[in-house]
């Protein structure tokens, strides 16, 4: 039978539970808390799961957890305010917290990454060599079908390269736009921007970034 802890032990355990709740709120956000999962961490510590669950609910429903997050955001904003450009610093941190965008120049394959642009360059080089081979010494056409096929292959490679370049440019513009948004939010309300960063970090973790 589990031993009933005395008052100092019980108070210490409750403080430990509350500390775990606040730490979990920082990590997963208010909506990401698993009350049952938290309570099970303290199984066999001399207090019933029902009691631990009640302690957790008190922290969450009293508004203490939300206040804790707000204070953390305010403290982070105050610390960042000492930097030369707080808004730009926050925007950079937000970008770092988000999942890395896969460049169109890379293709995921068999768990690795293949340099797509490098392969396209190789294909272009091969097409040019075939075209050269299909030409007659005097500049005429020696192998018409081969030259036409190689020319079409070259055209497709150039078309693909143009699409990749356009996509990469669009991604760069989108990243710059996101950075400007965060900078403007940080100028208006640094704590709000810090909370956005915390939530984006949680989302990135949930998506395996």
Structure description:
- The chain is mainly α.
- It has 2 domains: 56 residues; 110 residues, no CATH class.
- Helix content is 72%, strand content 4%.
- The radius of gyration is 29 Å and the shape is elongated.
Short key terms for the protein model shown above:
209 residues; mainly alpha; 8 helices; 4% strand; elongated
List the helices and strands and how they pair.
Layout: H1 7-28, H2 35-40, H3 49-61, H4 64-80, H5 86-97, E1 106-109, E2 112-115, H6 116-134, H7 144-188, H8 190-206
Antiparallel strand pairs: 1-2
Helix pairs in contact: 1-3, 1-4, 4-8, 5-7, 5-8, 6-7, 7-8
Give the tally of β-strands.
2
Q: How many helices? A: 8
* Percent of residues in beta strands: under 5%
Shape: elongated
Widest sheet, order of strands: 1-2
Question: Secondary-structure element order, as H and E?
Answer: HHHHHEEHHH
> From the helix content, strand content and strand pairing, which structural class follows?
mainly alpha
Question: Would you identify the regions where 5 or more consecutive residues have pLDDT less than 50?
Answer: none
Largest sheet: 2 strands, antiparallel
How far from one another are the termini?
45 Å
Mean of residue pLDDT values = 76
Helix fraction by DSSP (H/I, runs of at least 4): over 70%
How many distinct folded domains? 2
Spatial extent as radius of gyration: 29 Å
């Amino acid at each position: 039978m589990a031993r009933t802890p005395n008052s100092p032990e019980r108070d210490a355990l409750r403080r430990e539970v509350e500390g775990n709740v606040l730490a979990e709120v920082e990590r997963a956000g208010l909506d990401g808390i698993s009350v049952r999962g938290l309570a099970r961490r303290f199984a066999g510590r001399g207090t019933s799961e029902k009691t631990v669950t009640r302690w957790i609910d008190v922290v969450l429903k009293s508004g203490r957890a939300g206040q804790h997050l707000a204070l953390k955001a305010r403290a982070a904003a105050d610390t960042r305010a000492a930097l030369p450009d707080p808004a730009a610093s926050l925007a950079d941190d937000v970008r770092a917290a988000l999942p890395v965008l896969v460049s169109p120049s890379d293709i995921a394959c068999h768990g690795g990454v293949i340099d797509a642009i490098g392969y396209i360059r190789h294909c272009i080089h091969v097409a040019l060599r075939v075209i050269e081979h299909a030409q007659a010494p005097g500049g005429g056409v020696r192998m018409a079908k081969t030259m036409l096929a190689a020319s079409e292959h070259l055209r497709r490679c150039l078309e693909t390269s143009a699409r990749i370049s356009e996509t990469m440019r669009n991604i760069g513009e989108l990243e710059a736009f996101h950075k400007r948004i965060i900078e403007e939010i940080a100028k208006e309300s640094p704590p709000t921007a810090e909370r956005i960063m915390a939530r984006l970090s949680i989302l990135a973790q949930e998506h395996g970034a």
